[in-house]
Design brief:
heterodimer; A: alpha+beta; PmbA/TldD fold; eight-stranded mixed sheet; six-stranded mixed sheet; B: alpha+beta; six-stranded antiparallel sheet; 20 strands; about 20% helix; globular
Chain lengths: ~475, ~450
């Protein structure tokens, strides 16, 4: 039995590898890449890189018992990056004609006018290990089959309760074929397949509307949708909306907050993750600049960024600079152990890339970004954390948030919240936001449970919007400013 | 392009599409970022995109490509056909034969093309240099950039419509980061204009620096209800976050708080909100909308009363009214609804007079987290904010790390007056003067 599964996985693996190899060579031939890189180096530069992106994306939105919109198409373009010293020039074009691509490369080169150096470019195609086997390519699945699953989610939500007024279901898939080549001889291709559902419910009570949301996604094909418990996920979204519609407002103040596992990890993502990206660390603009080896968090905090977890939303076979991705320990028992580093910022910092150079597509130069970033399991139990809290907020579901990497000030909204009274979860509350500084919050985490789970998000920053996982076990922050009414 | 479009229509017809339409965008853009007087990043791009839609067996299907080549024709038609097949919408979009008249607008300013790359780089360097020289506590400028862009948009369909539009603009932005002991504070300023002579490096740098250093050591104020002024940039950012509520589509879907409020008072008498597609140089300016319908000027809220929702042809048909010329579409999107240039009408009162009028209260100078702390459906907000207190009409103390909360539609009813300092925010097409509000909730100390 084990053997059989193993063989099946191997077959899928080999099949995927073949596709990557076949399409990679089809995307752009070696001679053209060589000529574009040579043009990019023509005015004197240290480094040049070509990033080709040919993506087919598709989305369907279902609202009001009908297809609200469907869109699909082809994103295509080539990005050219030229670096001299710490100066970086980026150019892109949608053109596929060799002369026009060379022209774009020359435009980029002109911005770094200097003395031409002799560079030998020896492109050597190397294979990329595929840690994201795909079972069902989404582009071969009929759109009506995708729609069936969406309808199931829709009717689950609408049938949940009278107060539910609206449901919106979005299905997304994307097949991204990329090629990265640079003057150091790197020449790699990869295929990334993403599938995601975005499910939202709107409940109304007393003329006030509240929403519940779930957005499960993975670095998988259509098997992801087939394997998920869509009814359960939809019910949970509807339940959040209903509970919040009937909830009173959260009281403003500063008190303990218990943040649940899964999407609760957005706290670390926003409050600390961004400040650990070399984008802000390299220039000394982060509160964590120059603090490697120092204690920046409570003993119970260990944080990891791991782009290698198979088939996870934030996982990649290689980063968008062709670099090998890996597991990066960021904080270990409260001590700062590492940053997220891309090539250029690595040069600035005198450090190696951590395989964290990412970008949304060919329109963006890569920079250091998170992948699957989470606070690791601790030793407490979830029940124990709640029982030991006399008064506080229990943030069951977090909403979105943002942070200023310079000051570390963050904020995020609580989508589903409850008061904790005398060690028990009490009445639901809405409208709460958590605000504070990342560096302070890390020190104020005083209990971490053992129930790590992850949730998916799109993280926006200077290199665009990239898929990232956030995650954590249930944890408690001893004091945090809660905005409410 | 013309040849490709006629080939596409020809092939589409053979495949069974009845009406078809193509929209296209062609853009050139440039942006340079400066850090420590060095070029930190430099970006040049020429980008193109083509969106297709066509009616197949009575249903509309959409598709797009960024590879404008013959080998994309089959993908465009195949995807559009598949999308049409699952499109079970009761009300279908239609392809429009054109309005009688279109306003003549040219949003292209040739003088902007004459600004050399060197001038742009120098300007950004100058901003950073000035910012750092103005106050020794300015540690760095994390963002300092200058950019320019120009673009063409076109719409061609098989009903004979062939419309074109073009525009260009320049912009700059600077963020200054101040540090005093362990305390850090940032401030930013920007300028988006179609006239380079309006760009004053000193003025922009000074604004960012003052914003940054003023809040060093600032503490939260006490929680409670305050009389408040929302600074023009703050008000325009909030209006931008809530603007989808004016869309008839959101109303029909039951996700706008303005549902059922047409013809009623939704704001205080001093509030008039205008949608104006004809403002020269504004990013929402155009003579036609995403469906090719001629755009027009209208008051959405007139002295507090909700006059109209924003419509495209489909939402108008459902409500048995006319399109207001507010269909949105990019090559990658389906038809939606969006404002052109949406703003609060200004008054004659200066900002100083507004502060006098408030006498005692707070001025909110910055809010953040508009994408997470704002529920665009209910209008509920809870936003981190910065600002200063006003005592007897004069600036008193700076504060930060507070949240302001409330409901936007209650807030509109609490507007006492608006000032004369209408400005459009970083979003480009949504504007506001500063607003004096009778009551806002603060969570601070």
């Amino acid at each position: 039995m084990h053997n059989l599964i193993f063989n099946e996985i191997m077959l899928i693996f080999v099949y995927n590898l073949l596709i990557i190899l076949k399409e990679g060579t089809k995307m752009l031939d070696k001679n053209t890449i060589f000529d574009v890189l040579t043009a990019a180096m023509s005015k004197g530069a240290d480094f040049a890189e070509v990033f080709l992106d040919d993506t087919v994306a598709s989305n369907i939105n279902y609202v009001d018992k009908q297809v609200e919109s469907t869109q699909s198409g082809r994103d295509f373009g080539i990005g050219i990056r030229v670096i001299r010293g710490l100066n970086c020039v980026y150019a892109y074009t949608n053109s596929f004609i060799k002369e026009e691509m060379i022209n774009t490369a020359l435009k980029a080169a002109a911005a770094l006018e200097g003395v031409k150096k002799d560079v030998t470019i020896n492109l050597c195609k190397s294979d990329v290990f595929n840690r994201n086997p795909i079972k069902i390519m989404p582009d071969i699945v009929d759109k009506s089959e995708k729609l069936e699953y969406m309808k199931q989610a829709y009717s689950t939500i609408m049938g949940y309760d009278e107060c539910i007024k609206q449901a919106s279901i979005t299905y997304l898939d994307k097949i991204q074929n990329i090629l990265v080549a640079n003057t150091e001889g790197l020449f790699k291709t990869d295929k990334r397949v993403y599938t995601r559902m975005a499910i939202s419910a709107v409940a109304e009570y007393n003329n006030e509307m509240q929403t519940g949301f779930a957005g499960p996604g993975a670095h998988k094909g259509f098997e992801f949708v087939k394997e998920m418990d869509i009814v359960d996920i939809s019910r949970n979204a509807a339940e959040t909306a209903k509970k919040m519609a009937y909830a009173g407002y959260c009281k403003a103040g500063a008190y303990p907050v218990v943040i649940d596992n899964g999407f609760g990890g957005v706290i670390f993502h926003e409050a600390c993750g961004h400040s650990l990206e070399a984008t802000s660390v390299a220039k000394g603009n982060s509160v964590f600049s120059g603090k490697l080896g120092e204690k920046i968090a409570a003993d119970c905090v260990t944080a990891i960024d791991d782009a290698t977890l198979p088939n996870q939303w934030g996982t990649t076979n290689m980063d968008d600079e062709g670099g090998e991705t890996r597991k990066n320990i960021l904080i270990e028992n409260g001590i700062l152990k590492g940053y997220l580093i891309d090539k250029l910022n690595g040069k600035r910092m005198g450090m190696e890339s951590s395989g964290s150079g990412r970008r949304q597509n060919y329109r963006y130069a890569p920079t250091s970004r998170m992948s699957n970033t989470f606070i690791d399991n601790g030793s407490s139990k979830r029940e124990e954390i709640i029982q030991s809290t006399d008064f506080g907020l229990y943030a069951k579901q977090m909403g979105g948030g943002s942070v200023n990497p310079g000051t570390g000030e963050f904020n995020f909204s609580v989508q589903e919240g409850y008061m904790i009274r005398n060690g028990k979860i009490a009445e639901p509350v809405r409208g709460a936001t958590l605000i504070g500084k990342g560096s302070e919050i890390l020190k104020n985490i005083d209990m971490v449970a053992d129930n790590l789970s992850m949730a998916q998000g799109m993280c926006g920053s200077s290199s665009g919007s990239v898929p990232t996982n956030v995650g954590q076990p249930t944890l408690r922050v001893s004091k945090i400013t809660v905005g409410g009414r | 392009m013309k040849q490709l479009i006629s080939k596409l229509f020809e092939k589409g017809k053979a495949m069974g599409f009845s009406d078809m339409e193509v929209v296209f965008n062609e853009n050139d853009s440039f942006e340079v970022k400066i850090y420590d007087q060095q070029i930190d990043s430099y970006k040049v791009a020429d980008s193109k995109g083509m969106g297709f839609r066509g009616v197949y067996e009575g249903n509309m299907g959409y598709s797009y490509t960024e590879k404008i080549a013959e080998d994309s024709i089959d993908i465009l038609l195949r995807e559009a056909m598949q999308n049409a097949k699952i499109n079970d919408s009761k009300e279908q979009d239609i392809i429009y034969e054109g309005s009688k008249e279109y306003e003549e607008i040219d949003n292209y300013f040739p003088k902007l093309d004459e600004i050399s790359v060197e001038t742009k780089i120098e300007f950004a360097k100058e901003m950073e240099k000035i910012a750092k020289s103005l106050d020794s506590r300015i540690k760095s400028c994390p963002y300092c950039f200058f950019g320019s862009g120009s673009g063409n948009t076109g719409l061609v369909n098989t009903k004979g419509l062939d419309l074109k539009d073009r525009g260009n603009s320049i912009y700059c932005f600077i963020e200054a980061l101040a540090q005093q002991a362990d305390d850090m504070s940032d401030g930013f300023a920007f300028c988006i204009e179609n006239d380079f002579s309006q760009f004053d490096a000193h003025k922009i740098a000074k604004e960012a620096v003052e914003k940054a250093v003023s809040y060093l050591g600032a503490k939260p104020i006490k929680s409670g209800a305050y009389k408040a002024i929302l600074l023009n940039t703050v008000s325009s950012d909030i209006l931008s976050a809530i603007s989808s509520c004016f869309s008839a589509r959101a109303v029909q879907k039951g996700i706008s708080f303005l549902k059922g409020k047409l013809g009623t008072d939704v704001a205080s008498e001093s509030v008039t909100i205008v949608d104006d597609p004809f403002m020269p140089g504004q990013s929402g300016t155009s003579s036609f909308d995403g469906e090719g319908v001629a755009t027009r000027y209208k008051e959405v809220i007139s002295n507090g009363k909700l006059m109209t929702y924003l419509h495209n042809m489909k939402t108008a048909r459902i409500d048995k009214t006319e399109s207001t010329g507010n269909a949105s579409r990019s090559y990658k999107s389906n038809i939606g609804v969006s404002p052109t240039n949406l703003y609060f009408r200004k008054s004659e009162i200066s900002f100083e007079q507004l502060e006098q009028k408030m006498s005692d209260g707070i001025v909110i100078t910055e809010v953040s987290a508009l994408h997470s702390g704002f529920n665009a459906i209910s209008g509920d907000f809870s936003l981190p904010a910065k600002g200063y207190t006003v005592k007897e009409g004069k600036k008193d103390k700076y504060f930060r790390q507070i949240t302001v909360s409330g409901n936007y539609f209650e807030l509109l009813k609490n507007v006492i007056s608006v000032s004369d300092d209408l400005t459009f925010g970083t979003n480009g097409n949504i504007g506001s003067p500063s607003l004096l509000i009778s009551n806002i909730n603060v969570a601070g100390e």
